[in-house]
Amino acid sequence: MENQPFTVLFFGKTGAGKSSTLNSMFNFNLDVGAAVAVTKVPKPICLTSLDYDLLHHKQIQVVDIPGIGESIEADEYYLPFYKEWIPKTDSLVWVTQADTRAYKRDQIFLLKLLPLFHPSLNFTIALNKIDYFGVNEDEKGFDTSSKQPSQDQLNRLPEKIADVYQVFDSIIEGKVDFKPEQVIPYTSFYGWGLDALKQKILTRR
Amino acid sequence: MFSFKEKTPIRLVIGLNQVDKMIPGGWNEKLNCPTKEAEEQLEKRAKDIISKLSKIAQLSDTHIEYYSALKRYRLIPLLSKVIANAYAGFKLDHIKPRDPFELADPEVKAFADEQRAKRNKGNQQDSNLFLEELSKYLSPQDTKLLQEKLAQEKQRPPKVAILGKAGVGKTTTINSVFNAEWKTSHTTVGTTEAQMKEFELKDGGGTLSVVDLPGYGRSLKEDAKYDEIYQSVIPSCDVVLLIMQADARDLTDDQEMILKLTQWLKKSPTPQR
Predict the structure, then answer these.
(1) ipTM higher than 0.90?
(2) How far is CA A151 from the centre of its chain?
(3) DSSP assignment letter at A35
(4) Which of A29, A39, A68, A161 has the greatest count of CB atoms below 10 A from its CB?
(5) Does residue B181 register a pLDDT over 50?
(6) What radius of gyration, in Å, describes the C-alpha atoms of chain B?
(7) Do A100 and B167 touch (CB under 8 A)?
(8) What is the pLDDT of residue A73?
């Protein structure tokens, strides 16, 4: 095990912030674009474990895989990439965004990809864009100066996590180990929650 | 699986909401508008959406507008596109669509104009007199039909369906765009979760019905039951406003909805009520 590279695969809806998460987490310099999807081919990137003493593995490879949901045609086109990479994956990071209530596309892809999951897969839901989460006119939003969620956002967060957990768990149905603690809220832009996410995907803790 | 070649004109507007969240730091709070950088991204985004959707439906840049319901940004341009893409009978405030009676006989047109003028003043007294005049030119059946048409026009206010994925801001949009007093309390359409709301328009513009449809794309289970609601409401609408979220790039759910919408609207080229 120790000589094998530890493969972390980043997957999720287009625009959810996979590339920007990788950039913030590992100091990568991947192209990110707000308007148009930019990740076109899977990018395995190797890291040395020197910076990650949390891990026993000598090498970590991180794969940024094209986003799902870009369009009906694109979804079909990218399927072979997922089929190639998921069986080799140790830790699957499913990036999705907190500022939506629409997770059907995640469910559809999870249904398609679930047969490729092996039982020991470390599966994490990376719930990005917490900075945009739950802002009503009468509520306080993310505090951009302290880079912390507001109390209003924090109050609503447990309910949000429970909801997202339920959406995924209803599809997973015990195929891999999955608990609410595997839904990690964070913001790739401001960095809040990023360390917790990194620890979860590399160590399961 | 899907037919991409078939192109059908469609009474649909895409509203690209939440432009204040397009990019982090992309909103100028002081001026309440996007930064220049965000605005450039928005224009690119709108073009990208239309180029993808134009493959499945006859949509162009006249069918899309970006705005923020929460920030009340670009609501008028959005409303203009809604009106421009609505069925010809759609009337709103001072906007005057082409008059269906213009294609009728001059006498009929004159009668319609007279009736409308009276309706606006709330004065119906002389209508019988004029109808007598008109009956010289029209058969009794035609006179009756004409009266019915005018009554219909009065009774059936323009109707807008608001559609979009769960959480894109449909209700916020309704509250911001159709800033008006509630005329009636929430009415449930059938046994569904669709809510019909009626607004009284300014300057005798009549009423406007807005149907707030349940959001799709939340889960497989929920979507399965919504199609029936959509199909029962959408053919009766003068225009459908489909709302998307500016910072969410996943388009598949919306593409699938537009494919279905195209089919439903094609079956009812005029609003069926």
Answers:
(1) no
(2) 24
(3) S
(4) A68
(5) no
(6) 21
(7) yes
(8) 75
pLDDT in tens, B207-235: 778 888 888 998 888 888 899 889 988 99
Matching residue, tokens 């993310």: A142
Q: How far is CA A61 from CA A7, A90, B18, B74, in A?
A: 5, 10, 36, 45
Contact B20, B66 (CB under 8 A): no
Contact B214, B192 (CB under 8 A): yes
**Triad A139, A143, A147: Cα angle to 5°:** 150
Q: How far apart are CA B156 and CA B90, in angstroms?
A: 10
Which residues are CB-contacts of B155 (< 8 A; sequence separation ≥ 6)?
Answer: none
Q: What is the pTM of this model?
A: 0.75
What mean pLDDT, rounded, does chain A reach? 85
pLDDT above 70 coverage of chain A, percent = 85
Report the first-to-last Cα separation within chain B, whole angstroms: 31
Look up residue B66 and give its two tokens: 């970006």
CB contact under 8 A, B52 and A71: yes
Q: What is the pLDDT of residues A147-178, one digit of tens each?
A: 999 999 999 899 999 999 999 999 999 999 99
Q: How far apart are CA B252 and CA A76, in angstroms?
A: 11
- Tally of residues, chain B: 273
Residue B167 to residue A170, Cβ atoms within 8 A: no
B247 touches chain A (CB under 8 A): yes
Count of CB pairs separated by less than 8 Å, A with B: 103
pLDDT beyond 80 at B187:
no
Render pLDDT for B60-73 as a digit per residue (tens, 0 to 9).
Answer: 999 999 999 888 88
The reply to whether A105 touches chain B by the CB within 8 Å rule is yes
Report d(CA B111, CA B120) in Å as an integer: 14
Q: What percent of chain B has pLDDT over 70?
A: 72
Contacts of B22 in chain A (CB under 8 A): 34
Residues of A with Cβ-Cβ distance to B252 under 8 angstroms? 68-72, 75, 105
Please name every residue paired with B241 in a beta bridge, in sequence order, or none if there are none: B13, B162
Nearest alpha carbon to residue A81 among A103, A113, A110: A113
Q: What is the DSSP letter of A91?
A: E
